[in-house]
Task: structure prediction
Amino acid sequence: MPETNKKIAGCGFHHVSMRVRDLETSLKFYTEALGFVEKAYWGEGTGRTVLLDTGDGNYFEISQGDPDQVNENGNFHHIALRTNDCDAAIKAARAAGAEVTMELTDVNLTGKPPLKIRIAFFKGPDGELVEFFQNDQT
Result:
């Protein structure tokens, strides 16, 4: 399919991120009941995060949250948009007036498998947290 976004190269949906009360219970549900496949994981304790492939190359990221702070409907944390050029993408968001909450950052996630990513976060018009996510592995 040809690219249609002329401003952000390679843009598309990458993942939705949610904090959960019990990561193991959520993993069992999403893998066994819905057929998602564990693609990568990293961190420990309340920092443990798992990236699940929903089946079409889009991902659902779930992280162990503090059980006392996760509300009854779960806590969606952010949405992530895929890009081939994180630098140009955050520049375009900033030029449009978005508040950048995390500048361009290269991250080496030491999980299974190790992931090298380039990310940046900003707030959308209603305060929603959006991440630009660039890597070659997912």
